[in-house]
Amino acid sequence: YKTFDGDLKWDHNDVTYRILNYSPDMDSSVIDDAFARAFKVWSDVTPLTFTRLFDGTADIMISFGKANHGDPYPFDGRDGLLAHAYPPGNGIQGDAHFDDDEYWTLGKGPVVKTLFGNANGALCHFPFTFEGESYTTCTTKGRSDNLPWCATTADYNRDKKYGFCPSELLKTFGGNANGDKCVFPFVFLEKEYNSCTTEGRSDGYRWCATTDSFDKDKKYGFCPSRDTTVIGGNSEGEPCHFPFVFLGKEYDSCTSEGRGDGKLWCSTTGNYDNDNKWGFCPDQGYSLFLVAAHEFGHALGLDHSSIREALMYPMYSFVEDFSLHEDDIEGIHYLYGSKTGPVPSPTPPIDPTTDSYPDPDETDATNEPEPTETTTTAQPVDPKKDACKMTKFDTITTINGALYFFKDGNYWKMPGKNDAEPKGPFAISEKWPALPAVIDSAFEDLLTKKLYFFSGTRFWVYTGQSVLGPRSIEKLNLPSSIQKVEGALQRGRGKVLLFSGENFWRLDVKAQNIDRGYPKRTDVVFGGVPSDAHDVFQYKGHFYFCRDHFYWRMNSRRQVDRVGYVKYDLLKC
Amino acid sequence: WSLPLKSIFVTFPGDVVKNMTDTELAEGYLEKFGYMDTIHRSGFESMTSTSKALKKMQRQMGLEETGELDKPTLEAMKQPRCGVPDVAN
Prior knowledge:
The complex is a heterodimer. By secondary structure, chain A is α+β, with helices and mostly antiparallel strands. In chain A, a hairpin with a 2-residue loop joins strand 7 and strand 8. In chain A, helix 1 packs across helix 5. The radius of gyration of chain A is 26 Å and the shape is globular. Chain A starts with 13 loop residues before the first strand and ends with a helix. Chain B is mostly helical. Chain B has helices at about 20-30, 35-40, 45-60, 70-75, and one strand at about 80. The longest helix of chain B has 16 residues, at about 45-60. The interface of A and B includes residues 286 and 306 of A.
């Protein structure tokens, strides 16, 4: 860790902060919560307390801005610089600025808090099904008033829980109209506007009048981002138009064609070639919580660390289960000392073989333990077996956030760090003695942390060190014609897609049964990936379909956004 | 599947085009995040200073210290990051 020259620090432990404005990307309550959690990262390990002020000058003034935003360090549009903060002191010192040309989320795609409806403002659940169709964004389907809505559970038809998605048709934020909705058309400088505009502003924020004449009433608010609208480009706030024509070819989804940087974009009219209207498609976004926790580190007196895993490392990387690195803790302790009383230690890593969660299935008769059959004996591993020299793995899966590569009785583990090398080989028989040497597929049930392993027509379930199985996959109601399960994708809590041949089935993990309406054809639902993929798994929010030593990576909108080498990209060989 | 796609790159109106060579990008990065400035002050010649600054940046980022603008270094410079300089000015 490093501190700023002169060990700049606050001379008091009761630090105050104030949020000056909000990003249109998330509801203000979600942003408030992200900042509060980011402060808690530091207050958990120091004697510091953080109190939010709603007016006046706070030690840490937090704001969103774009490009030139009032200090000598302008932001640079999308990506690149995400935020900056000043070390402790008076005036601008201690303040934190976030680049609002970024797409702010919690790191895993749009965070849409609903309004009205019957879900008490719950977040949208993506994907959700409505009348048999799956939706990954808010939709206006089923409504005649054009208001975007979403289900707040996985299945609208079953649960009937819904809410409306933020849009200028329902509310604004900031401004002086108390969040009133936009009124269209409205008049501004004698010109009529039928949608939100950036006219009249130098900061690039989209706004509207909340009466029919801004000239007369001077009432206005800022327009919230819709999850279906583009970011940046020359059509910010407009929805993608599908299909659209680009260089004479028709596109039904966002594409990276035409760009050298691989970023996904779409046209906001039916023909880009004619209209040249475009914008970037919403992606996973940057975690406001993680970036804020880093910036607040600066605001407390920490400079950049050279330890890649530390929060204070200058580069952004998304981690799902964040815990403060020892280096960050040492740094902040150097400045402020440790928390008096018992110090909460950083969250310990969860051993994937230790089931620390209560098992809801414990009394389920269908899950009675069956006699354990040990099909392998512990074999010494050959340390010369190099994961980088394998052309094809039996299966690849994610366990507790780390990638596991299985091959012929051995496995390798890729720690979740960017530059880490594969660890292994380890003997499968050492860790999971009941398993055979060849594993066709595996997945971790996100709800119970149980590990499911498939080999041929049999499967095993590991809970810590105890094992159920082998059982026939027919017990899951998979057809007897299936020779092996070749891949698994978690779809929300309790549902897993199992792939075999050119089809896939959806397993209800709790009911231990295949859902109705399956199998479905892989190429119909997952267009653009090889229909004969032999490994299918989920990693960091993407779906991976592997054939030989290549992978096809698909984002949550089911767009193939990368094709690459397992060896170089996943194993970092 | 392995056939390479023929890509045509276009200029998108309103895009924040960072039309710069790798060298320009690297020099901008080294200066913006404080690596170059420190070296300038210590009075080295330009070629040496870029190489030294690169080495310093590579050390900070945990990259191999080649002192050259190699692919991993260039990739690191393109990663999203915090705007606070790595070397205090």
